[in-house]
Design a protein that fits this description.
The complex is a heterodimer of chains A (79) and B (1017).
Chain A lengths: L1 E8 L1 E4 L2 E7 L1 E14 L10 E8 L3 E7 L4 E8 L1
Antiparallel strand pairs in A: 1-7, 2-3, 3-4, 4-5, 5-6, 6-7
Chain B lengths: L19 H10 L4 E7 L5 H10 L3 E9 L5 E6 L2 H17 L9 H6 L4 E4 L6 H7 L3 H15 L4 E6 L6 H15 L3 E4 L10 H12 L21 H7 L4 H13 L20 H19 L5 H16 L3 H16 L4 E4 L6 H5 L29 E5 L3 H12 L4 E9 L2 H11 L4 H8 L10 H7 L14 H9 L4 E13 L10 E3 L5 E3 L12 E8 H13 L13 H9 L11 H10 L4 H10 L2 H5 L3 H8 L10 H7 L9 H12 L3 H13 L3 H17 L4 H13 L7 H20 L1 H10 L8 H10 L3 E3 L11 E3 L2 E3 L10 H13 L5 H7 L4 H9 L10 H16 L18 H12 L7 H5 L7 E2 L1 H6 L4 E12 L9 E8 L2 E8 H13 L2 E9 L8 E9 L2
Parallel strand pairs in B: 1-2, 4-5, 5-6, 8-13, 14-16, 17-18, 20-22
Antiparallel strand pairs in B: 2-3, 3-4, 7-8, 9-10, 10-13, 11-12, 15-16, 18-19, 18-21, 19-20, 21-22
Helix pairs in contact in B: 5-6, 5-7, 8-16, 11-12, 11-13, 16-17, 16-19, 20-32, 21-31, 22-23, 23-31, 26-27, 27-28, 29-30, 31-32, 32-33, 35-37, 36-37
The chains are: A mainly beta (79), B alpha/beta (1017).
């Protein structure tokens, strides 16, 4: 099961790697399971998107980073 | 250091978004020692890539990304020329196994052609990657083992691509696991499709064009992100930090590969296969002298010297076999009664004339052989021959049979992006609707795709064009980015290559739409591979000539037409040459009349004069004035007199430019030919300036003063654009004169022949009919019992042929002719019952007047037609007798319009006749206008062929022809008037033009210089 969140978050880093974030509770990143980049709808001036699938102490999460806006988003939570 | 080994150029056809030049210059900037180009299933970029890479000090590695028969991808790199030939054979095999649109290489072919190839396991669409992504490690391993078995250890590398896709991590891990297990080395690539990250939208758009999707739509082949760019070595180092050996391998592979192309070899077949070149040289010599004795009443020492000189050069260039091959095929044409005419610079050769390939006496004309062939340039000869269009394929078939299908192929062409095609394709991909695209491309002329903005600012009719809007700014930029990119491959109209060895040694072959095999190199690059092109061109004029000659039978000996026929020259002097080859455009007709052409040389000059080069170089007016002695003929330097005297001191032909460069500046033939090329192509101002400096410097050294040298060069520059070769002009002039002769003496037969050879020429069929009628030739209507398949001529009449009817298929025509041979048709019902003609075409026959003899009420016949078809089917709803129709016929105008719509011409009447009664008496017809020599007039007519040729000043002048029921009048529209009326001019089929009568130089030819243009509604 997964749940769409799509809410901005403040991400803490350890070096250049995502380490932890808060969303109601504290989520501690254990490791990055996958990472990819999406082109976005460039014809609508949508920026490129970096996606991180991370495994935290609570669940698997999909984090989005919008390089143009320097914004991190908790996009999805999964079992 | 790192080398890109998987790179797509624009020759990946809508899957490569950066030019070869851009990619190579970037590689040079990053000091990459080598680069590979791996386009999809082709090596079309190979020659251009090889040459530019060598120039930039980069080792070119030829390769291709192929698709195997099971749909998986592999990246192949040619280690050497053996590998390149294997690649060519594999791609050919792929097209043979797949289809015209899909190259699917069988594994068996890979097994047979593996030597000299290095294989990278491929992108995510490879068999290995697909298995890894399915988590089928066993299958992935089997795929790699299969490659090892086919290509051998040391030839296989596991390709790693880090494009940051959702599956990249798994894929890289899987490949690394295979590497560890099988000890197969890794190789990093970036599967490059464009130069910079910011070029990603262009690539995405091209993929949308290819997959026929819009950007808003999803398609599995669309790129997921913009990571497949030409990443720098540093960036690749970052991406492959965990796999440094994958980066190192790229250098190792580059070191192992050597440039695979061997340029400038001679692959042309020997005429005597088991003999050395001497035998061919000897045979050519014999044939030439035989021909010389036939062509010339006596052989002067000068002629002997000229022929020997040519034979010597041909032998030195090892080109005798080529001349013999062309001689052989025109012999075949002659034996089959196929009309042909050699053209182009080959007509500069006396040998070619003696062999009967051309009809131009290069010796008598003093033509320069070096324009065609020279030792210094050592280029491949190129002989173009026009054939009767109906028989061109028969001649080509002979060549295939003569040399074997594996050694003959047609040359490909690349359809490249220009403004209109780029706007249409990219606009569609961006989601614009058809109507919007029609608006966006309206009045956008044939300019490069990067010239749209300048066109928008230059042309007054584009002042309010939607492309000025901010909404389309990006579209215009995207179009500029793909300028001249190849969109698809096509077949050259006439070019075929013949090889002494299987062609697949140097080029893959693939099927064309026409069914013939084509090379993957076009006419500009094929010669570099050692192949020589023979141009077997189709010329519909020759079809028309053949048709007329056949119809006239013994009444005419075309080849014996006298070249000094007074009536023919009188026709030229009147400018009454609609239908004559090369002499029928308004500009040519006006020139003929002003020039008062009275000798063959005038026609040769005319053919060369009405070209962008001489027009821009302001040579037309001085030529006419000097020809008539109204302007003194002066020469800037005494040495120019000998060269320019035949053209009254005007630089008219390419041969003269070569001679000027040789005489004045002491250029070698090679340097002079380079000057000719720079001039005629005129692609770069800097290049022209550089050669100008060289010309002046060398002229100074030979004692010519600075001012004179500069002025002479300015003449040469003025000629830049599209210079014409005298030999070519003379070859065309021969056909031009003879067709004018036919127009003069056998108008009905020749107009009928022209109508049968359509589409061809400057004017549409209806205009030819108007012209014929103006000469008293009756156009007889379509008649189901009288019309033949083609137009047929009697002495003073032309009967419209059945083929002219829209939709008339061969089977329908056969069925009509067969049924009619048994018994003439007695009614429409009889026609329907005894033929297989479809109802639509039967309706077109009625509208075209084919049943007027039965009933003149065409509307009633059409009303009855469905009944006859129901009867034929035996329908229950059918009735034995037709419905009693008392419906009125079409109005005369409707009747005319419908006849025109199904025949593209009418037997009687002209659209203007319907407007004439409403026009004021002050509006004159073409006959009245033609009789005037001055004054202001108003004339109404159908607009024919408005066009905007280049002018010396760069200002716009539009030429058009107004056609009415009596004939044609040409109209000139200067820029000020054009700016006011551009929209009307290009928006309305019928115009009312007010203007001044113009008769320049007392010509027998009145034109109107427009001052006001109105639409006729």
């Amino acid at each position: 099961m997964s749940k769409l969140i799509n809410q901005p978050i403040q991400l803490k880093f350890k070096g250049s790697f995502p380490a932890a974030f808060s969303f109601g509770r504290e989520f501690e990143v254990k490791y990055i399971a996958n990472h990819w980049r999406e082109g976005g709808q460039w014809w609508l001036d949508e920026p490129e998107l970096f996606v991180y699938e991370v495994v935290t102490n609570r669940c698997r999460c999909e984090l989005h980073f919008l390089p143009g806006l320097e914004q991190w988003v908790l996009y999805r939570l999964a079992d | 250091m790192f080398v890109h080994l998987h790179v797509h150029s624009p020759y990946s056809f809508l899957d490569g978004a950066s030019s070869l030049s851009a990619l190579l210059h970037q590689a040079a900037e990053w000091e990459m020692p080598a680069l590979a180009i791996t386009d999809h299933s082709n090596v079309s970029a190979a020659v251009e890539f090889h040459k530019l890479a060598q120039e930039l000090g980069i080792k070119p590695i030829q390769g291709a990304e192929i698709t195997t028969e099971d749909g998986t991808h592999l990246t192949l790199l040619a280690e050497n020329s053996q590998g390149y030939a294997a690649l060519c054979r594999l791609i050919t095999a792929g097209f043979a196994h797949g289809s015209r649109h899909e190259c699917l290489v069988p594994w068996e072919a890979l097994q047979e052609n593996a030597r000299g190839l290095i294989v990278l396991s491929g992108c995510h669409r490879s068999g290995t990657a697909q298995a890894i992504l399915r988590r089928d490690h066993t299958r992935a391993k089997a795929e790699v083992l299969r490659l090892l078995e086919i290509f051998g250890p040391g030839q296989v590398y596991l390709e790693m691509i880090q494009s940051y896709l959702p599956f990249s991590k798994r894929l890289l891990e899987g490949i690394f696991k295979l590497h560890e297990e099988l000890r197969v080395p890794l190789a990093a690539t970036n599967n490059v499709h464009y130069l910079r990250k910011e070029d990603f939208p262009i690539h995405d758009l091209l993929v949308c064009v290819r997959t026929q999707t819009r950007v808003q739509e999803i398609h599995p082949e669309r790129p997921f992100n913009g990571e497949n760019y030409f990443a720098s070595p540093e960036e690749m180092k970052r991406r492959f930090a965990a796999f440094p050996e994958a980066l190192a391998s790229t250098l190792e592979i580059a070191q192992r590969c050597s440039p695979a192309l061997q340029l400038d070899q001679n692959l042309f077949p020997r005429y005597f296969p088991d003999e050395g070149p001497e035998k061919a040289n000897q045979f050519l010599r014999e044939l030439t002298w035989q021909g010389a004795r036939r062509r010339y009443p006596s052989i002067s020492p000068a002629l002997r010297e000229r022929i020997e000189h040519e034979l010597y050069i041909i032998a030195r260039l090892d080109a005798a076999d080529y001349f013999l091959a062309v001689w052989d095929l025109v012999q075949y044409a002659r034996s089959q009664g196929i009309r042909y005419a050699g053209r182009g610079s080959a007509a500069d050769s006396v040998v070619v004339y003696c062999l009967g390939i051309t009809n131009v006496d290069a010796f008598a004309r003093g033509l320069l052989f070096e324009r065609f062939l020279s030792l210094e340039r050592a280029q491949k000869p190129d002989i173009d021959v026009d054939f009767d269009a109906r028989c061109r394929d028969q001649v080509a078939e002979y060549v295939y049979q003569r040399y074997g299908p594996e050694r003959v192929a047609s040359v490909c062409t690349f359809h490249t992006y220009h403004a209109r095609s780029a706007l249409r394709d990219l606009g569609k991909a961006l989601g614009y609707k058809q109507e919007e695209l029609n608006e966006l491309t309206r009045n956008i002329t044939s300019v490069p795709a990067d010239g749209i903005r300048s066109l928008l600012h230059r042309l007054p009719e584009l002042r309010h064009h939607p492309l000025h809007g901010e909404k389309y700014a990006r579209l215009v930029d995207y179009c500029a980015a793909i300028n001249a990119f190849p969109r698809q491959m096509g077949t050259h109209l006439g070019g075929i290559v013949v090889s002494g060895e299987p062609l697949t040694k140097v080029t893959p072959l693939q099927p064309s739409a026409k069914g013939v095999l084509i090379t993957q190199f076009d006419k500009d690059t094929i010669g570099d591979l050692g192949l020589i092109k023979i141009d077997l061109l189709s010329l519909r004029t020759l079809s028309a000539v053949s048709h007329a000659v056949q119809e006239l039978g013994p009444r005419l000996d075309y080849d014996a037409i006298p070249l000094n026929d007074k009536a023919t020259f009188a026709r030229l002097q009147r400018g009454d040459t609609v239908g004559a080859f090369q002499l029928e455009s308004p500009a040519q007709r006006s020139l003929q009349s002003r020039l008062q052409a009275d000798r063959f040389e005038d026609i040769v000059a005319s053919v060369a004069l009405i070209r962008p080069g001489p027009i821009k170089g302001n040579m037309v007016e001085p030529y006419i004035a000097r020809r008539h002695g109204r302007e003194a003929i002066t020469y800037l330097h005494p040495k120019l007199e000998k060269i320019l005297a035949p053209t009254y001191g005007v630089v008219l032909y390419q041969e003269q430019v070569i001679e000027i460069a040789t005489e004045i500046a002491g250029f070698t033939p090679g340097e002079a030919d380079h000057l000719r090329k720079v001039m005629t192509r005129f692609r770069s101002q800097a290049e022209m300036e550089e050669i100008g400096r060289e010309f002046i410097q060398k002229a100074l050294a030979r004692g010519v003063d600075q001012g004179t040298a500069e002025e002479i060069f300015s003449y040469v520059v003025g000629y830049a654009g599209y210079g014409f070769c005298e030999a070519h002009a003379a070859a065309f002039a021969d056909t031009a004169y003879r067709t004018t002769y036919l127009l003069e003496h056998y108008p009905a037969h020749f107009y009928a022949a022209l109508l049968n050879a359509q589409p061809m020429g400057f004017y549409p069929p209806n205009t030819l009919c108007v012209q014929a009628r103006s000469r008293g030739i009756k156009i007889l209507p379509l008649h189901i019992n009288e019309s033949a398949a083609d137009f047929t001529a009697q002495d003073d009449a032309i009967r419209i042929g059945l083929k002219q009817v829209t939709g008339m298929e061969e089977a329908f025509l056969d069925s009509i002719l067969q049924a009619r041979a048994e018994k003439r048709f007695s009614s429409v019902q009889d026609f329907v019952s005894r033929t297989i003609v479809s109802k639509d075409v039967a309706e077109n026959l009625i509208l075209g007047g084919a049943f007027d003899w039965f009933s003149t009420n065409r509307r009633a016949l059409i009303w009855e037609l469905p009944h006859y078809y129901l009867n034929k089917k035996g329908s229950l709803f059918a009735d034995a007798s037709p419905p009693k129709s008392r419906i009125p016929d079409f109005s005369p105008f409707e009747r005319w319009l419908k006849e025109y719509s199904v025949l593209r011409l009418t037997a009687e009447g002209h659209v203007l006749e319907f407007y004439r009664p409403q026009l004021p008496k002050t509006v004159l017809n073409s006959r009245e206008v033609a009789a005037l020599s001055e004054g202001t007039v108003q004339m109404a007519g159908l607009v024919i062929r408005p066009h905007r040729p280049p002018t010396r000043s760069g200002r716009i002048i539009v030429f058009l022809t107004l056609e009415d029921e009596y004939g044609l009048i040409d109209v000139t529209v200067f820029e000020d008037v054009y700016k006011k009326y551009a929209k009307v001019l290009y928006g309305s089929p019928l115009l009312l033009v007010t203007g001044e009568i113009s008769r320049r130089d007392g010509a027998e030819f009145s034109t109107i210089t427009a001052s006001r243009i109105q639409a006729l509604r």
